[in-house]
Specification:
Structural class: alpha+beta
Largest sheet: 4 strands, antiparallel
CATH class of the largest domain: Mainly Beta
Helix content: 10-25%
Strand order of the largest sheet: 1-2-6-5
Number of domains: 2
CATH topology of the largest domain: Immunoglobulin-like
CATH architecture of the largest domain: Sandwich
Radius of gyration: 40 Å
Shape: elongated
Length: 182
């Protein structure tokens, strides 16, 4: 068998696509499409390719930055919670809430106490620590201090707020502490 240009390359493809299964010539529409595809060897120009690569790199860098920025927090954030040790006074007549781990700069007028009965109803509505009186009082460890500090106490009478009641300390930004009187 002789190998000629007629048996291989474009001539061979042309003959295959230009005939139907019986071997008769067809209209030639498919041949023009194939030749147009085969002869278009040009790809994306180098300038466009460079611009696309830079754009993809910038987008990936932005996505990576957004993902990592959420994981990193800067220094200087102060704790928002107040630690509270719950107990009874020596005579057993009052609940004693001793404050610890207090965020700095919290004035007694900016921290509020709410007490709930065991069934969830409000026993004492939201009241500033500086405004407590009667069956609830706020006692500062240092009477000259202007801010709440570790060691300050909240006293709640047991007869008004029985075991199973719960308390909540909050400020304008949210809840600082909560717990059950037990």
């Amino acid at each position: 068998m002789r190998t000629t240009r007629e048996n291989c390359g474009e001539g061979f493809i042309e003959r295959l696509t230009n005939r139907n299964p019986v071997g008769k010539p067809t209209g030639g529409q498919n041949l023009r499409t194939i030749r147009a595809i085969r002869r278009d060897h040009a790809g994306v120009s180098p300038v466009i390719a460079t611009i696309l690569m830079v754009a993809i790199t910038v987008v990936l860098a932005a996505v990576l930055y957004v993902m990592v920025a959420g994981l990193v927090t800067g220094p200087g954030t102060t704790p928002r919670a107040i630690g509270v040790a719950i107990g009874k006074t020596g005579d057993g007549l009052s609940w004693q809430l001793t404050l610890s781990d207090v965020p700095s700069g919290k004035a007694p007028s900016s921290v509020f106490l709410t007490v709930f009965y065991a069934n969830g109803t409000v026993a004492m509505s939201r009241t500033a620590l500086s405004g407590l009186s009667g069956s609830a009082s706020f006692v500062q460890i240092d009477s000259s201090a202007t801010n709440i500090q570790a060691g300050d106490k909240i006293l709640l009478t047991v007869s008004t707020y029985p075991a199973g009641s719960s308390f909540q300390l909050s400020d304008v930004d949210g809840i600082l502490a909560q717990g059950a009187l037990q």
